[in-house]
Amino acid sequence: MHIGRQSEISPQAIIEEPENVVIGDHVQIKAGVVLRPETGFIVIGNHVVIDHYTLIHGKGGVEIGDWCIIAPHCGLFAQSHAFDSFDKPITLQPLTGRGITLMGDNLLEAGAIILDGVTLGKGTVVGAGAVVTQSFPMAKVIAGNPARILKDRAPRDTWEFRTSERASVDLTPPEYWPYIEQRAAFGRQLLTPADVVLDLGCGEGYLTNIFREKCSTIIGVDYCEAAVAKARGRYGLDCRHMSCTALDFPPASFDVVTCFELLEHLTRLQAKRTVMEILRVLKPGGRLVGSTPLRQGGEGIYATYSHIHEYSAQELRALLQPFAKVEITGNYFLAVKG
């Protein structure tokens, strides 16, 4: 088990499979906390507080970002038992997990429950006793069973680069649209009429709709349910509420995966899992086409709150190393599966 600097773990905390647990700097884990990786993993960032009697099951992997506070008696369950067969006891059926991610600066109030497959956007707050069954975007206040959005933490009357998580078809100011159109042009030139395409981080569907004109079939995926609903309503797109780290598609389903301005919104662990999922769903010889803002300054010095990690060119090439061929030009990349 790795434990960072100046972290405090109560002697009354229970940590099973410590080899599968990573704890960052300045972390407080209080009495009665139980960490159970169950052959998965639990990764805790820096400046995190996990209060008394919280239980974390990590079969599918649990990642808790920096500056999170988890109040007493919470539960994070990145796993579930299969019960498809009626001919054998449930305890003899597979235990599976897709994973849970708290992106950072999250508050889980007392008794909140987070279920498998959930990603909570940076800065989102979960009310006491809530049961979170699906992913929610950045800077929301959610509560209830099942949890729903009560309000935004950041004003949404205007679109502001430093506090917005994605482009808005209605609110993004004119000065940003040339950059969006550059992404559209880069993606269009690499699509063919026969391609079956998956657009990761589709947002409100602007680029997905443009790419639809150049390919046979396209499906959009985003972890924000409201954005997916807008994409469906405005453009009639096939867009689905889904995490990019656990894609609900069979292997070798797509000729192309597009991924524009997504990687910087993921933790580094999420990004690695996303790359492996992309490889899984791509056909042999399939292409990954996308963009991400390459880091100009030091690590952690980013222009916007929503960016979790900006890559250097060297880091991006290392992330895409599992592909047989990688081309990086400015902020754009093309990777080909072997």
Keywords:
Rossmann fold; about 30% strand; about 350 residues
Account of the protein in words:
- By secondary structure, the chain is an alpha/beta fold.
- It has two domains: about 150 residues, UDP N-Acetylglucosamine Acyltransferase, domain 1 (3 Solenoid); about 160 residues, Vaccinia Virus protein VP39 (Rossmann fold), CATH 3.40.50.
- Helix content is about 15%, strand content about 30%.
- It has five helices and 29 strands.
- The protein has an eight-stranded mixed sheet, with no helix packed on it. Strands 25-24-23-26-27-29-28 form a seven-stranded mixed sheet. A six-stranded parallel sheet has the order 1-4-7-10-15-18, with no helix packed on it.
- The longest helix has 14 residues.
- The model has no long low-confidence stretch (mean pLDDT about 95).
